[in-house]
Amino acid sequence: MLEIRPAHRRGSAHFDWLFSRHTFSFGNYCDPQQSGFSDLLVINEDIVQPGKGFGTHPHRDMEIFTYVIDGALAHKDSMDNGSVIEAGDVQLMTAGTGVTHSEFNHSQSELVHFLQIWLVPSSKGVEPRYQQSHFGPAQKQGRLALIISPDGAEGSLSLYQDVRVYAGCFDVGEQAQLTLADNRYAYVHLVRGTLTVNGTVLHAGDGARIRGERLIDIQQGHNAEVLVFDLRPHEKPSR
Fold first, then answer.
1. Which class does domain 2-231 fall in?
2. For residues 163 and 65, what is the distance between their CA atoms, to the nearest angstrom?
3. Distance between CA atoms of residues 137 and 143, nearest Å
4. Is the dihedral of CA 8, 91, 186, 125 positive or negative?
């Protein structure tokens, strides 16, 4: 069964420096029917004005990953990491016992457009850690590349949870399939373009909860970029 989460029904926040869309409840947006899915707690799509951003703030016991769509994001944290995250980069921060960080648009002239996604970890109180890697077009075009996993398989970043995240880019004539293990859920988030998933057409910003399916079938893409989450079979995150 595939349940669509339409892009236009997401929550939103609009400031002079930030436009954000919230797939699940976040900040001032609260919808009891949209409080996450499996271990997925937050999917925020953010567009930040040049030179602006999020000042230093804390996190604890959360797996937080950032997926830059366009532009570049400057990151600094209390683990002494300072980096620039560009389009195609994936950054994963395990907050564990506690970490503070800031995120600013690295450019003084261009927007930065990115997703920030929070996953509830299986282990609390772990040592904070930082990971970053680049997954370029050659790795994602016409296929689903594993970018995050529990064990760092295939060069992916590793997290403390039974979750696997795949990223892919699809145009006309390209297709891919992902086979799930028995009794698994999945979530699909379409980053951009249009794409057909299990016979249903998705548009940019759309999401889809998938239950009771063994196969994720992806085809008929047009300038499409997609994230696919292989998840534990429960409805809402438990913190």
1. mainly beta
2. 13
3. 10
4. negative
Q: Please name the residue that has the structure tokens 């403390």.
A: 160
Taking only the tens place, the pLDDT of each residue in 79-112 is 998 999 999 999 999 999 999 999 999 999 999 9
Look up residue 21 and give its amino acid: R
What is the tens place of the pLDDT at every residue in 106-129?
A: 999 999 999 999 999 999 999 999
134-138 long-range contacts, CB within 8 A, separation 24+: 134/86, 134/88, 134/89, 134/90, 135/88, 135/89, 135/90, 135/167, 136/88, 137/88, 137/169
Beta bridge partners of 190: 226
Percent above pLDDT 70 for the chain: 100
Which amino acid, one-letter code, is at 117? I
- Distance CA(115)–CA(89), nearest Å, equals 11
The CA distance from 138 to 29, in Å, is 37
Backbone angles phi, psi at 140, to 5 degrees: -110, -20
d(Cα 170, Cα 21) in Å, to the nearest integer?
23
Q: Is there a contact between 229 and 164 (Cβ–Cβ < 8 Å)? A: yes
Q: Is the pLDDT of residue 216 over 80?
A: yes
Query: Alpha-carbon distance 196 to 40, whole Å?
Result: 22
User: Which residues partner with 142 through β-bridges?
Assistant: none
Q: Where are the domains of the chain?
A: 2-231
Query: For the chain, how far is it from start to end, CA to CA, in angstroms?
Result: 26
Helix-, strand-, coil-residue percentages of the chain, each rounded to 5: 5, 55, 40
